[in-house]
Amino acid sequence: MTQPSMPVLESVTRTWPDLEAAHERATDAGAALLRSRTELLSVLTRLATYASARDELLRSLRAVAGAPWELARTGVPQLSRISVVLPQHSALYSYVRDCLVPALYCDEVVVRPTPRIRETACAVHQIISRGLDPQLASRIRFTDAAESDFMPVCAESDAVVHTGSVEAGNRLMTGIGDAPLFLFSGPAPNPLIVGPRTEPAAACRTVLRARLYNSGQDRRCPDVLFVHRLRLNALVEQLRAELSVLTVGARGWPDAVLTALAYGEAVEGAARFLAAHTDRLVTGGGTDPERMQIEPSLLVFDEDPGFHPPALAGPLFCVVPYEDPELLREWARNPRELERGMYASVLGEPRLTGRTLGTAVVLRDGTPFDVEDGNQPCGGYGVHASGVRREGVLLGRPLLLSREAAQQRSVITGPLR
């Protein structure tokens, strides 16, 4: 094992991850993912479309490959324990980002999947752990403890990572006290803005790709589309035409764009939203709770900054026209949107010049799926979408566990590698 090239003051009393071992273990983990890819895709398509499961696999490979670089860049110290609540979607990518990569610098990673994803997440862990370095695999421990029993475990952790609803996150954060570092990722509307300088066909492809990721069941999907009036009619007509010919099939079909939704609650929420806005429907609107399906639905609302949709799941396209970008700024300044700002995708709107829209990070000519990197801070500045609590104060900012842990415990940088 190579020694740090330049020990600094804190190295005398601190323990640092072994980067040489991290390189070897990350390489083994990547190989395990590749060897098990067929088995993993079979498990993931219990809840996800084949296309999104395959994308998860590739994103996970990239996160594992970049893990040693992440550790060296952030200077994260060796941690004793982190506790993780896995979300109900993205079983593999969430496992790799929140459990496997942290296991490279943490002695124990205690994982509590949400009930809906438990079976899939446990299967993913079992498949991958077979190919991991035994010491690394032993650091990741799944628990089926109830939320109340999990709280004491979290309270004794260096850090807690929670991805899920605002209510569940607040309940856990309050119940464990102020001592642990707490990272919280919740739902966000992620508006997609189609400006006057956007070519409608290109905008339509971007909208479809972003909204239909895993049949619309991802927290990064855009829940609202702001479309400039110069492009409104053309985009609506193109979307109407495209939605009528989407491939519907089983989750395991490689070419299926739309599948049954994974959870009854998602179907019920979409059905309630459609029933409340039948006068806005351009096409679609059908629901089949028994088959867990939502018809691709296009709705056009008034030019109004007061439209604040709930977190939506399914192939729902909510269009709000605009002319003056001040409407977008007014919408983003609403207290609710300030709390849940994550991303704002901006296509062909040069009048939006800032790096943020409210608390949402502006992505120019791209979507969250284009830019998110598992080894870099992700998210925006809304405290309910991307929040970190340290010393009792909740702050909103893009999150990366290793960076937050390094800042939480660092007085001076660790060894140079």
UniProtKB/TrEMBL annotation:
SUPFAM superfamilies in alphabetical order: ALDH-like
Annotated InterPro entries: Ald_DH/histidinol_DH, Ald_DH_C, Ald_DH_N, Aldehyde_DH_dom
The entry's keywords: Oxidoreductase
Name of the protein in question: Aldehyde dehydrogenase
Pfam family, one: Aldedh
Domain called Aldehyde dehydrogenase: residue spans: 26-332
Record flagged with keyword Oxidoreductase: yes
UniProt superkingdom: Bacteria
